[in-house]
Amino acid sequence: MFHPLPLFIGLRYTRAKRRNHFISFISLISMLGIALGLVALIVVLSVMNGFHKEIQARILGMTSDATLSDPYGGMEDWRELLERVRAQPQVVGAAPFVELQAMLANGSRVSGALLRGILPAEEDQVAELRKDMVTGSLDDLRPGEFNIVLGQELASVLGVGVGDKLTVVTPQVNSTPAGMMPRLKRFTVTGIFSVGMQDYDRGAAFLSLDDAAKLMRLGDGVSGLRLKLIDQFQAPRLAREVALALGGTYLVSDWTQQHRNFFAALATEKRMMTIILFLIVAVAAFNIVSTLVMVVTDKRSDIAVLRTIGTSPGRVMGIFMVQGTTIGVVGTLLGVVGGVLLALNVEPIVAWIEGAFGVHFLDPSIYYISRLPSDVHAADVLAVGIGAFCMSVVATVYPAWRAARTDPAEALRYE
Fold first, then answer.
1. Which tens digit of pLDDT belongs to each residue from 225-251?
2. Which of 34, 43, 307, 348 could connect to 284 by a Cys-Cys bridge, CB 3.0–4.6 Å?
3. pTM metric for this prediction
4. Are 129 and 61 in contact (CB under 8 A)?
5. Phi (first) and psi of residue 174, to 5 degrees
6. For 245-298, what is each residue's pLDDT tens digit?
C-alpha cells in the first residue's frame, strides 16, 4: 500500500475527474458522512463531559473528598485527631461534623431531611457551601441559638423563609410519665442555599455543631471528620493512606463510594451514547465499500493494463486501498477539526440561537443547568479520530481485494 507506485496511482485516481459523476458524488457523500458523524460524536461527548464536570463540581462542593469516623460511635477525641489529620501531607483541610436524620415540621407541612452540624469557619476548608447561599449567612449558625440553614426546595416545601421558625423532630426519644415521646426542638431559619442538585436542595439542612451534638446526645463528641485531599480524583488511595497513618482504627470512606452508583450511571450513559453515535460514522465509512466497488468496475481496463505490464496483485490492491483511505482520512480530518471547533464554541452558539429565535433549549425553571457546558477531552477526540480512520481502512479491503483478482484477459476481451 505504501509502495511509491500504488501510492502515486491511488492518489491520482482520487484527484482525477471521473467520467462517472455518480461515483464522485458517492465519494463526496462518504467523506461528508464521516465528517458529520465525527462532528456530532465529538460535540455530544464534549457536552456530556461538560455536564458531568458541572454535576461533579456541585456534588463535591457539598461532599467532602473523604470522611473519617469511629467504628464504635461518637468520636470523643476529635480535637486531638483533627490536629493529627491536618498534619498529614495528603490532607489540605479537615472539619468536624455531626450528622443525623430528622423530620422538619412547620404546622401541617412535614418533610424528612439530613441534618449536618458544622463549624462554619472550619467547613470552608472542606466544602463550598458558603458560595451557594441564596439568603442569610453560615456565620449565623452560632452555638446555643438553634439556627438552621435549609436547602431552597426544602424551604419551599415547608413554606418557610429567613426569620421563620420550624420544629425539628429527631429519632431519639424522651421518657416521660405519658410514655416515650420524640424529641422536639424549635429552630429559626437564618439562611437558604441552592446547590442545583435535588438531593441537597430538597433533603439537606445545616445547623451549629454544638446544637447538632445536643440533639444527638453526643456530649462533646462528633460523628466524624470531613477531609479535603490534595487530589480528589485519587481520593480512594489517599484516604486509605491517611487512615493507615492514624493507626488503622478509624472507618474511612471517600466521595467515589458515596456516589458510586450515580457516577457509574453517568459513565454507562456516555459509553452507550458513544456506541450509538459511532454507528453514524460506521455507516459513512462503509459507504466507501460501494464507492470503491464502482471504481473497480469503472477501472477494469486500467487494472488489466497494469497487470499485463507486470504490476503484482498486491500493488493493485494497494492502489485502491490508498484511494479509499484518502477519502477516510480527509473525512476524518474535516470531522475532527469541525467537531473540536464546534465543541469549543457550542455554548455561545446555542446562546446566540436562543437569542435570535427566542427559544430556550434548557428552561431554567425546569433544568438545574440552563446552559450547555462543553469540556473537550483530547483523549476522546483522539479515540474517535483513530476509530474512524481504522474503519475507513477496513472498508477498503474487500473492494481492493476484488480489484487484485481481476483477470486481465477477461477485462480486455471487449476493449
1. 999 999 888 888 888 888 888 887 788
2. 34
3. 0.73
4. yes
5. -105, 140
6. 888 778 888 888 877 787 788 788 888 888 888 888 888 777 788 777 877 777
